[in-house]
Design a protein that fits this description.
The protein is an all-alpha fold. 62% of the residues lie in helices and 1% in strands. It contains 23 helices and 2 strands.
Length: 448
């Protein structure tokens, strides 16, 4: 349940103990949906559950209860805004709270905010956050720009947003360069005909099921680097040139060179995707018999007693199987922490190369504030003892790892569980930071 103070965007969390990683998580969420429907003005259910999972829970519930129920408002932007709009006089506070509570896609979030808060409030809030970065290629800045562009598909608006962000910067702060913005936009394949981009779209990951740790790490790479990624928009090169000529101080030769260089890289990425698709298709044919055999085995190993399968619905089968999958089995803990650490180190190094203020800062107190800010915004929690350990952590490099983990918004069950488990397990931190190698540990300990 959420109670909203009139002068704060933080709200009050009641009954907020974590259920992630336990076999009853989806059941708890189902009970939360019922409570929210019984108390539509007071209760709000929220958690690390993806929309595809929620839809399955919802369908299962609807068949059980004898009254109509609605989807959780964390996925219903219109109803969520109506709730928040009654609590805040300042729309910018309602905007910030909506960002925290809405569990749909970034694009969907933006569409609802434009619809209800208005374009001016959206630009004001995003420009203020954008101004805290010094390059459009930094993770947070890139996410703001790409999300807005993906929804609005308006180059001129994006240029205006960058100019407003520049006006909010202090005198000694580095301004955004519109040439960098042009490089970012050109990297989105927008001057490449849509039909020629199809190969890169085959690499998207579905969110209708739980993913394993390897897939979760793949999502991290795609979400953090935003590559390869395109926008469902085609602009002729000549038109993009004209837009930047009219709205920036860049000259035509400079603009054209940036676009043509980006096009070259885009076509190279498309060719790489085509080659990967060919390899995947060949591998699929080679492994088809093995996959069919594994499928037969998995059917025999169903966790639902055969005697009740004919008596339950498809949604109930899904519910029971997913509940079983959520049993916290942290096998190969050191390997998982090490694998995640390699990925995170690449992300940190890339942000340092970009000059990101988050990963060049040596101010321990500021790093802690950022960790708290992002973990609250993303919405994951840790044990009280873990927060105490982080509070007392003096090593800056270790805080970088905690910070990047706090910044990653990935709703997949596997990633949420492993992130929390690794942050709460100090014995894994040396593996996360690649200071302790797996070969240093006796096999009998690894097997425990």
């Amino acid at each position: 349940m959420i109670q909203y103070p009139s002068d704060s965007d933080l709200g009050l969390d009641v009954f907020g103990n974590k259920s992630q990683g336990y076999p009853y998580q989806l059941l708890i969420f189902a009970i939360g949906i019922i409570i929210e429907n019984l108390y539509p003005k007071d209760a709000y259910v929220w958690g690390g559950v993806e929309k595809g999972e929620v839809e399955n829970i919802f369908n299962w519930l609807q068949a059980l209860v004898d009254f109509p129920i609605q989807m959780p408002i964390c996925y219903d932007g219109d109803n969520l805004w109506q709730r928040l709009d009654k609590c805040y006089r300042d729309k910018s506070l309602a905007y910030k709270r909506f960002e925290v509570l809405y569990r749909g896609s970034f694009e969907g979030q933006l569409e609802f905010l434009i619809k209800h808060a208005g374009y001016d409030v959206l630009i004001e809030c995003n420009a203020d956050e954008l101004a805290s970065y010094n390059s459009p290629f930094q993770y947070g800045a890139e996410k703001i720009l790409l999300t807005l562009f993906n929804v609005r598909k308006n180059v001129k608006e994006l240029i205006e947003l960058v100019n407003i962000a520049n006006s909010l910067k202090e005198e000694n702060e580095e301004l955004f360069n519109l040439k960098d913005l042009l490089k970012l936009l050109s990297s989105l394949f927008i001057t490449i005909p849509i039909v020629e981009r199809e190969p890169i779209r085959l690499f998207s990951i579905t969110s209708s099921r739980m993913v394993n740790i390897e897939e979760a790490l793949t999502r991290i790479i795609l979400n953090f680097y935003n590559t390869p990624e395109d926008v469902n928009l085609y602009i002729k090169k000549e038109k993009l040139v004209d837009l930047f000529l009219e709205n920036s101080e860049l000259d035509k030769i400079e603009i054209t060179e940036v676009i043509e260089e980006a096009e070259k890289i885009c076509y190279e990425q498309i060719e790489k995707c085509i080659e990967l698709i060919k390899q995947a298709e060949k591998q699929e044919k080679d492994n088809q018999k093995i996959k069919e055999s594994e499928q037969i085995k998995s059917e025999k190993k169903s966790n639902i007693p055969k005697s009740i399968i004919p008596e339950i619905s498809e949604n109930e089968i899904y519910f029971f199987e997913q509940a079983y999958l959520q049993t916290p089995e942290f096998v190969s803990r050191q390997e998982a922490a090490s694998e995640m650490g390699v990925t995170l180190k690449k992300l940190i190094d890339k942000e340092i190369d970009k000059g990101s203020k988050y990963f060049i800062s040596k101010d321990r107190e500021q790093l802690l504030r950022w960790i708290y800010r992002f973990s609250h915004k993303i919405g994951f929690g840790l044990k009280y003892s873990t927060w105490n350990n982080i509070d007392n952590e003096s090593e800056i490099e270790k805080l970088y790892y905690f910070l990047v983990l706090s910044m990653l918004k990935d709703n997949s069950h596997s990633f949420w569980v492993w992130r929390r488990h690794i942050m709460e397990s100090s014995d894994l931190w040396d593996f996360l930071m690649q200071r302790k190698k797996l070969c240093e540990i006796p096999k009998e300990i690894l097997d425990k």
